[in-house]
Design goal:
80% of the residues lie in helices and 0% in strands. By secondary structure, the protein is mainly α. It has a single domain, classed as MFS general substrate transporter like domains (Growth Hormone, Chain: A), CATH 1.20.1250. Helix 1 crosses helix 9 and helix 4 packs antiparallel against helix 5. The mean pLDDT is 89.
Length: 430
């Protein structure tokens, strides 16, 4: 198979992996009510279930990042898929709430495996198009949620929540085999313009000194800070919005499906549109990706506040506002990943993104529990509105500062890669 065609096969395999993995991961939202009924628990206890997996994934991000930068990323991704299938099976057989809490927390082990996937894709596709590719891959996240929503709504009565987890866990084991035998490793830095024309590229792996240097990049530190607050809204919406529609807006299961399905489709489109707009802006200014992310975050906060103010009985207006919100809130995702790679050397990119995700989830892991506590004392409406709007506004401010600093960090990276290319050419000339 031609290299150009093969790289799209890799994208297709990773898309299916992310679709099914996210479906398994996010099924917990649609299945929240039957799980709570099975174990006889309240919102705060269920919030602890959500938070447990997030804490485990947060802790393991740095380890996954190091392993990806040190060893073959493709084989580690196959291992992550195997772990996904195995831990989901353990969750399905858990007999009591404490064991379910523990086994569901273990599913967070593979949730921190994405930095290697994005790093490997970066070596297949150059910086000018990465935003679109990442946006395309991230379509799998909301589509996975929709698959989980449909499966959770339509089959929970016949299969039960345990039966659904048996199914999704089995798919994880199958994908592990597919990735192991299908996806090939790519030399780190192969797609960078400065290195793309070289016949051979040296083997670059994790370097402690270079990794520590990440914390001296001002734009990267600002992205880390933005990430700390930026994922709070996503965890609250992912884990509690389904129940909010059920219990506070009194939506029937059919009404929930008719509301969430179009919203998820629009959300999926927003990932790709945000990445494509970021690429277009990046070709015009090195600040383009970050400015695109900032506009998306700020607009999403305003639209969500307006949406939550819609009267309870007006389902049509609520849906319209939800669709407007959904198109903007994923704008930052692909652009943040691309920006991290725009300012870091290839051999530490998994580590850099792993640190980004570690910081994001170390704070946001508490978001579902915090929302559950607020819901018990007040309402899910107040929890969603307060957490989402406040953190998105703060994130927009941090992105504005990032946009100021990022051009000089991008210029530094391009200079480092040009120097590396000259060294490689000199070595090849003998």
């Amino acid at each position: 198979m031609k290299p150009t065609r093969y790289r799209w096969l890799v994208v297709a395999v990773f898309f299916v992996f992310m679709l099914l993995h996210q479906s398994d991961r996010l099924l917990i939202g649609p299945l929240t009510t039957p799980i709570m009924q099975t174990f006889g628990i309240d919102e705060a206890q269920m919030g602890a279930v959500f938070t447990g997996a997030l804490i485990v994934s947060s802790i393991l991000y740095p380890l996954w990042g190091y392993l990806y930068d040190r060893f073959a990323r493709a084989k580690l991704l196959a291992l992550a898929s195997f772990i996904w299938g195995s831990t989901t099976w353990l969750s399905a057989i858990a007999p009591t709430y404490p064991t379910f809490l523990a086994t569901r927390a273990s599913t967070g082990i593979d949730d921190s495996s994405y930095p290697g996937l994005y790093s490997l894709i970066a070596d297949y596709f150059g910086p000018q198009v990465r935003g679109k590719i990442y946006g395309l891959l991230q379509i799998a996240q909301p589509l996975g949620y929709m698959v989980g929503l449909i499966v959770g709504t339509m089959f929970v009565a016949s299969l039960g929540w345990r039966g659904i987890y048996y199914l999704t866990g089995s798919l994880g084991l199958v994908l592990a085999i597919v990735i192991f035998f299908t996806v090939r490793e790519m030399p780190r830095g192969k797609s960078e313009p400065e290195l793309a024309n070289l016949e051979q590229i040296g083997i670059y792996r994790f370097d402690k000194k270079i990794a520590l240097g990440l914390f001296r990049k001002k734009s990267l530190l600002l992205l880390f800070a933005q990430g700390f607050v930026g994922v709070f809204p996503w965890n609250v919406i992912t884990y509690w919005f389904f129940r909010y529609l059920e219990t506070e807006r009194k939506y029937s299961p059919d009404a929930v499906l008719m509301t969430m399905a179009p919203a998820i489709l629009v959300l999926a489109a927003g990932y790709f549109v945000g990445g494509a707009v970021g690429d277009w802006m990046f070709r015009r200014t090195s600040r383009g990706r970050v400015l695109t992310a900032m506009v998306g975050v700020l607009t999403g906060a305003v639209m969500l506040a307006l949406m939550m103010s819609v009267p309870m009985g007006n389902q049509t207006l609520f849906l319209v506002m939800l669709l407007f919100t959904a198109v903007f809130i994923p704008f930052a995702s692909a652009n943040v990943i691309s920006t991290v790679y725009d300012i870091t050397l290839p051999e530490v990119r998994s580590t850099a993104l792993a640190v980004q995700y570690f910081i994001e989830n170390s704070g946001a892991a508490l978001a579902p529990l915090l929302a559950g506590i607020i819901a018990v004392r007040s309402s899910l409406h107040d929890a969603i509105l307060l957490i989402c709007v406040s953190t998105w506004l703060l994130g927009a401010i941090l992105l504005a500062f990032t946009a100021y600093w990022v051009p000089r960090d991008i210029a530094t990276l391009r200079e480092q890669l040009r120097a590396r290319a000259e060294f490689e050419r000199a070595a090849q000339r003998g």
